[in-house]
Amino acid sequence: MKNDPFESVPLLRLAVCLMVGIVVGEYAIIPVPILPVFIAMVAVTLLLWKFPQVQSVVIALCFVMLGGLLMQRQKESLQVAWPEEEVQYEAVVLSEPVEKPKTIAVDILLTGSQRKLKCYLYKDDRSRCLRIGDGLRLQSRIKPNSDWHNGTFDYRRYLEIHGFTGTTFVSSWKWQKVQISLSGLSRLERTRLYFLQLRSRLLSRWGGDDDASAVVAAMTLGDKSALTQDLKETYAITGASHILALSGLHLGIIYSLLMLLFGGRKIITVHCSLFTILGVWAFVFLVGMPVSVVRAAVMLSVYALLSLGHRDKMSVNTLAFTALVLLMLHPLSLFDVGFQMSFMAVFSILVWMPLLMSVFPPDYLQTHRVVRWCWAMVAVSVAAQMGVAPLIAYYFGRFSTYFLLTNFIVVPTATLILWLAPVVLLIPSCAYLLLYIVGLLNTVLTRIAAIPGASIEGLHPSILQVAMIYVIIVAVYLLILRLRKETSPRRGW
Predict the structure, then answer these.
(1) What is the pLDDT of residues 78-103, one digit of tens each?
(2) CA-to-CA distance for 66 and 78, rounded, in angstroms?
(3) pLDDT of 119-142, one tens digit each?
(4) DSSP for 298-366?
(5) Are the beta carbons of 305 and 278 closer than 8 angstroms?
(6) Looking at the DSSP assignment, which residues form a beta bridge with residue 170?
(7) How far is Cα 96 from Cα 269, in angstroms, rounded to an integer?
(8) CA 24, CA 3: separation in Å to the nearest integer?
(9) CB 449 within 8 A of CB 234
(10) How far is CA 127 from each of CA 168, 267, 462, rounded to the nearest angstrom?
């Protein structure tokens, strides 16, 4: 069947096998060394070229073992035996200071070992004035990550996913700002630090501390530190939180803008694709390389390359390839909420969109563009919601009932905001228009959140219940495919 996304998805099977291996490597105790067994399995795979079915099974087992091996290696890399006593070390600041009740929190990178730490400094004027890229000389005791839990939130897992290997609390007289050499850092870390400093300068140009400025900073540069709890709650209740967290929606809009700037959509050339991909990845570094944005960047890079050959550009295989790349580089990403929601949303859209769009005849949608746009918005919203709703219920305990209404408002508005943002950087006087649009968006969402029944709260499904919900969704999908196949008119040879 032409619209069946499961016809040819070999990479999806491999991605699932890799995920299984990562889960096994995280939770199971493996009594034998994985590496020699993995090498032996690869050798057996090469010898089975005359038996393709058996070879496929062995390849699947190889990817399960690869997932376990990668997970084991990453867990070992995060296990650091910090000294029991205080030590002196030099570090570079990676984040803007965040004010806590008694301390100032910053992320730091040790220049010697290149390990990231959560650093809490005594709150004073010196610590408040720290900026990204500042060098520090500190003396303190570094502690392993805490095992603190709150519901489904595992703080230790959160720190490990984001590369933190320890935490330190530093008194005001035990640190000083100094000039340090960054030559010991890798080229990748120096590049990331440069773009983080650039983002900090761009954020300072917004200047405002109101809700509108906070939303602009979150949507354009991925900085959510200025968002108030009330504003976050409003966006969560209405189902609009996805526009505050940078994802494929934002990068897709930026990709379209870059394609127009570098050559237009009619003729896609090698130079156009190259400059667009470079622009996309520059934005990824600029916003701090969150998992959802990296995922979208990899997919868009593959999309741009395949566009040159007029191949199938955006498919389940492309998504699976992206998952394979990211999980091989960072296996712990599998346990990141953002990773799970990002991939499930895109996977659900790729699977359900062809079915939902086929409700109307293609000729009708071609001649009625307003209907096509409205139905496409409904289809993509419903498809994405089916992918992420069980996860939202599990992690956040809620379901937004007006997500369709919200998406009809926030998606066009987000497009307008992202297109206006570079204009404001070039012509600062246009900032009034941008902030007015964002302020209007906040007002509309606040009123939607006030409608009775805007959000169903108190949902706390177990992991088993979440899995069963997804089984039901898959079963419904396969049933629809079967019914469509049986009711479609038979074609002659």
Answers:
(1) 888 888 899 999 999 998 888 888 89
(2) 19
(3) 999 988 888 889 998 999 999 999
(4) HHHHHHHHHHHTT---S-HHHHHHHHHHHHHH-GGGGG-HHHHHHHHHHHHHHHHHHHHHTTS-HHHHH
(5) no
(6) 121
(7) 40
(8) 34
(9) yes
(10) 15, 52, 42
